Amino acid sequence: MTDAALTTDTLAVTYTGNRRVEAVKGVSLEFPRNQLTAIIGPSGCGKSTLLKSLNRLHEIQPNVEISGDVTLNGRSVYDTDDPIPEIRKRIGYVPQEPTPLPLSIYENVAYGLRIHGEFESDADLDDRVERYLRKVNLWEEVEDRLDAPGAELSRGQIQRLCLARSLAVEPEVLLCDEVTSALDPVSAETVEETLADLKSEYTIVMVTHSMDQARRLADEIVFLYLGEVVETNDATSFFENPQAERTKEFVAGHGVAVPDDSDDEQSEKPSVTPEQ
What we know:
By secondary structure, this protein is an alpha/beta fold. It has one domain: Rossmann fold (3-Layer(aba) Sandwich), CATH 3.40.50. Helices cover 33% and strands 25% of the residues. It is built from 10 helices and 10 strands. Helix 3 runs parallel beside helix 6 and helix 4 crosses helix 6. The longest helix has 14 residues. The protein is globular. The two termini are 31 Å apart. Keywords: ATP-binding, Cell membrane, Membrane, Nucleotide-binding. One of its GO terms (cellular component) is membrane. This is ABC-type phosphate transport system, ATPase component. GO terms for molecular function: ATP binding; ATP hydrolysis activity; phosphate transmembrane transporter activity. InterPro entries: AAA+_ATPase, ABC_transporter-like_ATP-bd, P-loop_NTPase, PstB-like.
């Protein structure tokens, strides 16, 4: 791969609670700029653990050890004095379960901009809210009710609202964790179309359990198994000519069972707001 926006260097994540579990094991990857990389693999293989370690999201929970490094455009994410909220601003995160802030549709998008003071006037803020609602194909559905609570939207609309909220602070990388798995098929298709539109402007890293979704959206594929990278390649080569035997089995639909003691994510759904 060339022109990587985000890289990992022997990144390892270990849970140290009741039992010690190494969920991600010495992963070194490059995530190409302005492309969508899908992380796939069987349930419990470390996909979401890897994703959340890319912007230090695991630091909000106890009993986690991380070694190795992540770099964003050549700058370390871990070996830095930069405030954590600034890192998470540059590497945004959209969770599996869409959760609007208890605010209006307008204020959900404006929230991060207000926190970081990144607007010049009320008119500028209005323009930015509209811009990012348009980016996620939501503006025409909500322009006449921006003062309504975000929670009143449909689940699919809320997921796009969460995307707009993440994009409003201009991240360099967007992390998406199973962002369509809780949606109905029509809403999921709309979110997929939005991601397809966004990937030319943003570096997107997406965890998905759907092989079909990875085929449709991804430029690059990372296949993870028991916390280790089995194979990574461009999407066409990965699906049409997989190299590793385990990849061939997985692509063919046979899958690979994960032992019960291979704990992927312990306490894997922290509540995260943009300022964290």
